[in-house]
Amino acid sequence: MSRKCASQYLPFIEQRLGYAFANRQLLLEALTHKSYYHENKEGASQHNERLEFLGDSIIGLVVVEYLFLHKSAYTESVLAKIKSYIVSEPVFAEIAASLSLGECLLLGKGETSTGGRTKKSILANAFEAVAGAVYLDGGFERARDIIRRLFSERMETALASGQFFDYKTELQERTQLAYGKLPEYRVISQLGEEHQRIFTVSVSLNGRLLGTASGRRKKEAETLAAKEALEKLQDQR
């Protein structure tokens, strides 16, 4: 994709972001991968790595602020776990995909031919760069509003489900230490259409049921079942 062609996508990205750039050159830079820059140095003045570096810090600050002010008043150790889960490549790539950033990236021929538009690392870096571009163009308040809007539902879901905490590993370590055995997970049911399926999973130890939970993904259901099991084991102490 040429820079001229990419420029035509900028209003589309602005619409998805809910933000109009005063300096669209910043957005274009955020969408310019280094592979394109190295192949087109005469036409591309910068690639997005500097904006990516800036955006990572801005996103991290906004997420930490959100979590710090949350009504649950989590401890420092829990805040660190949640931040590590949210401020991560998989989450950034997911948000980038929701904004259709991959379709608008300026990539070199090699990256284009090897599926660069769907690579999680490239998508995540592009999202960080776009966040940095918004910060430079509109200031911290505008960047914060956009980041909070894009992340709030994911953060609340993670907090409610406990996805940020590795309950499965914790349960495995505890049962192995106390009983010398590993817990067993079993899918009890799968309900709904494929794109709206709900999994119900049980976890047991030595044939004894410790927890049952449901989720949109099998992993989520297992995580919640493990959480219930840990709470049951804790109550028995």
Structure in words:
- By secondary structure, this protein is mostly helical.
- It contains 13 helices and 3 strands, in the order H-H-H-H-H-H-H-H-H-H-H-H-E-E-E-H.
- It has helices at residues 3-7, 10-17, 24-30, 34-39, 49-68, 76-86, 89-98, 101-104, 109-113, 120-138, 140-161, 167-179, 218-235, and strands spanning 184-191, 198-205, 208-215.
- The chain has a 3-stranded antiparallel beta sheet.
- The model has no long low-confidence stretch (mean pLDDT 88).
Q: Which runs of at least 5 residues are low in confidence (pLDDT < 50)?
A: none
Report the biggest beta sheet as strand number plus sense, adding barrel if it closes: 3 strands, antiparallel
Q: Roughly how much helix do the residues carry, as a percent range?
A: 55-70%
Find the count of extended strands (DSSP E, 2+ residues). Answer: 3
Structural class based on helices, strands and sheet pairing: mainly alpha
Given the C-alpha coordinates, what overall shape results?
Answer: elongated
Which sequence of strands runs across the widest sheet?
Answer: 1-2-3
Strand content: 5-15%
Give the key terms.
3 strands, three-stranded antiparallel beta sheet, mainly alpha, 237 residues, 62% helix, 10% strand, elongated, 13 helices
SSE arrangement:
Elements: H1 3-7, H2 10-17, H3 24-30, H4 34-39, H5 49-68, H6 76-86, H7 89-98, H8 101-104, H9 109-113, H10 120-138, H11 140-161, H12 167-179, E1 184-191, E2 198-205, E3 208-215, H13 218-235
Antiparallel strand pairs: 1-2, 2-3
Helix pairs in contact: 3-10, 5-6, 5-10, 5-11, 7-10, 10-11, 12-13
